[in-house]
Protein: PLP-dependent aminotransferase family protein
Organism: Lacisediminihabitans changchengi
Amino acid sequence: MSNGHSPSESGTNLDPWYDLYADRTAGLSASEVRALFAVASRPEVVSLAGGMPFVSALPTDLVGGAFERVMREEGPQALQYGSGQGIPQLREHILDIMALEGIRASVDDVVVTTGSQHALELVTKLFINPGDVVLAEGPSYVTAMVVFKSFQAEVEHVLMDEHGLIPEALRQRIAEVKAQGRTIKFLYTIPSFSNPAGVTLTWERRLEILEICRANDILVLEDDPYGLLYFDSPPPQAMRSVEEEGVIYLGTFSKTLAPGFRVGWALAPHAIREKLILANEAAVLSPSSFSQYMITEYLNTADWRGQIDTFRGIYRERRDAMLSALDEYLPQLSWTVPNGGFYIWATLPDHLDSKAMLPRAVRELVAYTPGTAFYADGNGRNNMRLSFCYPTPEFIREGIRRLSVVINGEMDLLRTFSQTAPLRSIAPARDAKLGIASPPSNLA
Ligand SMILES: Cc1ncc(COP(=O)(O)O)c(C=O)c1O
């Protein structure tokens, strides 16, 4: 076997090309829960698993009107290849959007990408050699870690609590990794309403973390898809608002407009921006002209701030529905209370394994994402991410009720077994690093 994969990692021996795959594909293993998610997308299943924005809240005439005007007035350009950096009118609008989070920048430093996911890939491609270290919150966004691993980066998690990344834990992790002679390229962080934990980094910690990274020559990759989707009060300003040279900031229209356009962006320090454009061209020639013209038209003509307010109201109501259902049906769990975004991070009683439990949950017609998906190191067994963005409040309530049937069933089972064998002999001890560092303040 030339590429060092085990058959279970990248396919089976029935794949005739198996020996030819590049080493970097070793990280591209289909997760075991993927098949279950196919089942979970059936209409009778309440899915609290995905992170799909509720695009039905967009008035269809808003998008339809933009389409007609774009085709009438700018059809030939919209259907043509464009520049590798993105169209200037859209980049101007992006400056206005980022200004809402305190960012001042030059239009020259914005690079439009095919969703922020593609920006993640381009930045990783620019910086990562095999074996380089990427620091990331524990837990962190699953598909960012897939990208990091596909470039053979090693992800090292940094502990977080209900106030986000813990600066002291970051210092320690940096010291440990450096002592091992490994190279840290960047810190990947989602400071506002993180995916999956739903927590927000305080302003003081943002400053301290920037300081730590500056002192250690570590770039900060600030991923901010949810910052404008706050419920009660805005999050602290973006980290990029105070640090230009050491931060690459990623934004997207996926959550404030619609992911189907596949338009996001990177705001990068001048020198990096040049390389990003070249990498963008190498990958896609130019990001979709059509989508960019559509979004520009939408921003020119629609009340986009009002639309973001509408989304906030919808997601706030759904968050509230999930929190009250959790209070009612699952008081034995602990969970984070997000002030924005799409996700709640729940911690199950000790010894429950959210991944092992998922097939039983799907049988009860409810789905969630097991916590292990959000760690590169196997942690998160007794955590789960619960998304409140897509189902209606009624479905969220019903979903949590069904989940309570599953969890209560599991606990009954454990109690039964514990009468014949000590619990610790049938379930692994809880690792201190599981979940976030300390119980969130909402916990009963
Ligand atoms: C933290 C985070 N980053 C990036 C993305 C990718 O978003 P997109 O490529 O749609 O802009 C997502 C999508 O859910 C996300 O949650």
About this structure: The pocket of pyridoxal-5'-phosphate is lined by residues 51, 115-117, 141, 190, 195, 223, 225, 252, 254, 259, 264 (CB under 6 Å). The longest strand covers residues 154-161. The chain has a mean pLDDT of 90. Residues 192 and 200 are 5 Å apart (CA to CA).
